Amino acid sequence: MSELKKRSVSLSGHATSVALEPEFWAVLDRIGAELELGHAGLMKRIDETRGRTPLASACRLLALAWAGGDRSFAGQTLSD
């Protein structure tokens, strides 16, 4: 994998950045496009549904699951 690429986002009023390999960002960008969410919207949704998992880990796990065909995130809400 390539070196990490950072993206910044504001979550719950706090500025944060996430560093992931470009390959993961590519999958996350496809997820956002399919769900009609911008970068910030996708990151917010991941943050809201990740529980105690670190944000970068949650992003990687989502990307791997999605690439493997698991679309459960598409219907996941905070009440799930």
Give your account of this protein's structure.
The chain is of the alpha+beta class. The chain has a domain of 51 residues. The chain contains four helices and two strands. Strands 1-2 form a two-stranded antiparallel sheet. A hairpin with a 2-residue loop joins strand 1 and strand 2. Helix 1 packs across helix 3. The longest helix has 13 residues. The chain is globular, with a radius of gyration of 12 Å.
What would you say about this model in short?
With 80 residues, the protein is α+β, with helices and mostly antiparallel strands. Helix content is 51%, strand content 18%. The protein has a domain at 20-70.
Task: Spell out the key features of this protein.
about 80 residues; 2 strands; about 50% helix
Shape: globular
Question: Helical stretch count?
Answer: 4
Overall mean confidence score, pLDDT: 91
Strand content: 15-25%
The H-and-E topology, N to C, reads as EEHHHH
Strand tally, please?
Answer: 2
Give the fraction of residues assigned to helices: 40-55%
The parts where pLDDT drops under 50 for at least 5 residues are none
Multimer state? single chain
The major sheet is characterized as:
2 strands, antiparallel
**Rg calc:** 12 Å
C-alpha termini separation: 33 Å
SS-derived structural category: alpha+beta
Strand numbers in spatial order across the main sheet: 1-2
InterPro entries: RHH_dom, RHH_sf
Domain Ribbon-helix-helix: 5-66
Protein name: Ribbon-helix-helix domain-containing protein
Pfam families: RHH_4
